[in-house]
Specification:
The structure is a homodimer of 394-residue chains. Chain A is α/β, with parallel strands linked by helices and 394 residues long. The first copy, chain A, is built from 12 helices and 15 strands.
Chain lengths: 394, 394
């Protein structure tokens, strides 16, 4: 390591996953590795229209510096949609705009984590949340996680024993990487337990609106009596990721401190992007757009699950997500998914080996598959090839 | 402070400057406080054209996730312009795109600063650089600064005595807040001194292309034999700030580590904004655009300096910047610019009191004036009012 570097850089060495994922991006590879939305449904024509309008009507303001907390009309609309969809009770002052949801993770880590503080997470959890928190050199305590989310008994135990627990990071809806969703009772139990501790709950909710079946469940934020939950959202999955616009919902005093850090991090999020999304929400029906996304992703999930049933050996299991972008595959314990990856790559198909999603390692017999990005024919072909690789490997 | 918060949050309390600057933003106030470019010259029509084109030709890619290091054609163009303007010798692989220059400061702080490490800076220096570094809890050593920049003897002394010096942060061209520019010999002396130490030199260069007279001088990066200098640039001042696109130039190994932190911070900078700026640079002549900016800002600088000569008492002095956005005013030592601020506000004119630009405080008899944002008639009126406030105050 460069002798000038800070100690935190020991956590930012190139991981052994990096060259693997670079291979997955090669042309000709059917990649289930990323978490990319389907570009076919990006609102390209709508954005062309909107962007001309915004520049014509408010060009000088849309291209100028703006406030760290974000464009007020957009924050109002986000609060209203969240209240409708996730039963929260937010005002615009409870919403701040971020440069993608990733930025919220970076800033929240800075806000509460001293070196050696403890982050509790599901097991497995979102890889890039770990990268964000790593800048603050925390420890991780994985909380036992079953098909319904964090296991309450182990959460109790973790909070009681980890005196330096500061953050509980969870994705209750269509989790990344497993696709699992917490049922209502588990959410209530969770909130009852965490409310006894001074911990910040980060409810990361990038996929919650992409539900293929059943009713949207109350968010943790809507069950939050102590003001200890922040909920993160993003336009990346319901609109497009290229604009890098997300948001954080929380109590005003928390957001004031968050805003001071946000200002130091990048002053503010693109004014033009915020004006454009605000105009889109005014002039178009995003709910109709989301229905199209849901229909497409449901079809692709169905196709991937059917293809896996056909192509995978019986000893391989996988989750059946009710929404979101991912399914999670468990191989027999003797198999290392990184080795399988190289075999699969020979057959021109890629995925993310699952071990990296566990903060404390292990579980190398798992992998994540994305079904939102590839068109149907490539899903079928890719899963068939992966099945072949699996059969040869086992 | 919230008991959940990390120790670094002691540096992110609302400063006593915040309410002051909020007052400066009130309508009806002639504000010389911000660092805003002139919106009259924002390339609104050009962006309308470009944005339709980019969305029509490459919409799906422009709205998708993209790489942390940034759009390759844009990085190539930035390298070429920098080589021409600042005599650097950069390839695209020496350039990474950031979400404004502010993000580079945030990430560089994380990259090298452990708690208690020392940042050397000019005295005074850019306020928001301090905010960015503050997340890492450093100490500051102000290096004595005269009309030509950092005083070499004091820089030598500081580097010899501060065993934990990690960063030397400087703005050699049209500095914020003073408007001062380092002559060539001072740059050479500086590089000779720092090259004896393992310190990262951050050459912040947001204004370098806005030179009103004289030749552009070689950048520190162009004099860098050891690869210890990173140079920061931005489209905020030569194009528009609302898109939040800046860049960092440096050695490839440094940029690799920088990229890992950038990815953890916000994944990547807006794909669409990068495509748009790249298309603008291909289809329009940004050098012609910059000439217009220079003509306008030179006129406003001249007008502000003439107005100050007329309106300010003799015991008040100010700098005569050869470029950039700011002039720096020194009042008699007995005067506190925060008190003057309130008096000026009664007369509907605002500025930034200068004390906050000194990492270790003091120097309350100084203030910063911006001349780029206000139209000529308001510059004249505002400076006349400020002169009245000064005369009443002294």
């Amino acid at each position: 390591m460069n002798p000038m570097f800070a100690r935190r850089m020991s956590r930012f060495q190139e991981s052994d996953l990096t060259p693997i994922l670079r291979l997955a991006a090669n042309p000709g590879i059917i990649s289930f590795a990323g978490g990319l939305p389907a570009p076919e449904l990006f609102p390209v024509e709508e954005l062309k229209h909107i962007s001309s309008r915004v520049l014509a009507d408010q060009g000088k303001r849309a291209l100028q510096y703006s406030s760290s907390e974000g464009h007020l009309p957009l924050r109002e609309k986000i609060a209203a949609r969240s209240n409708k969809n996730f039963r929260t009770n937010l005002k615009a002052s409870n919403v701040a705009i971020t440069t993608g949801s990733q930025q919220s993770l970076d800033i929240l880590g800075k806000m509460v984590l001293d070196e050696g503080d403890c982050v509790l997470s599901e097991s497995p959890t979102y890889l890039a949340a770990l990268s964000a928190f790593n800048a603050c050199l925390p420890e991780y305590r994985e909380v036992e996680t079953d098909d319904k989310g964090m296991v309450s008994a182990d959460l109790e135990k973790a909070l009681a024993s980890e005196k330096r627990a500061k953050i509980v990071y969870v994705i209750p809806d269509f989790q990344n990487p497993t696709g699992k969703t917490w049922p209502l009772q588990r959410r209530k139990d969770f909130m009852e337990i965490v409310s006894k501790y001074d911990v910040l709950v980060i409810e990361d909710n990038p996929y919650g609106e992409l539900r293929f079946e059943g009713e949207i469940l109350p968010s943790l934020k809507s069950l939050d009596r102590r003001g200890q939950v922040v909920m993160l959202g993003t336009f990346s999955k319901i609109f497009c990721p290229g604009l890098r616009v997300g948001w954080i919902c929380g109590e005003e005093d928390l957001l004031a401190s968050f805003g001071n850090l946000k200002q130091a991090a990048d002053l503010h999020t693109s004014t033009l992007s915020q004006y454009e999304i605000d105009a889109y929400l005014s002039e178009y029906d995003i709910e109709e757009h989301i229905k199209k996304l849901i229909a497409l992703y449901r079809e692709r999930r169905d196709l991937m699950l059917r293809s896996m049933e056909r192509a995978f050996p019986e000893e391989v299991t996988f989750t059946r997500p009710a929404g979101g972008l991912f399914t999670w595959v468990t191989l027999p314990e003797r198999v290392n998914a990184r080795d399988l990856f190289l075999k699969a790559l020979e057959k021109k198909v890629a995925f993310v080996p699952g071990g990296a999603f566990f903060p404390n390692g292990g579980h190398e017999n798992t992998l994540r598959l994305n079904y939102s990005n590839m068109p149907p024919e490539l899903i079928e072909e890719g899963i068939a090839s992966l099945g072949e690789a699996l059969r040869e490997f086992l």
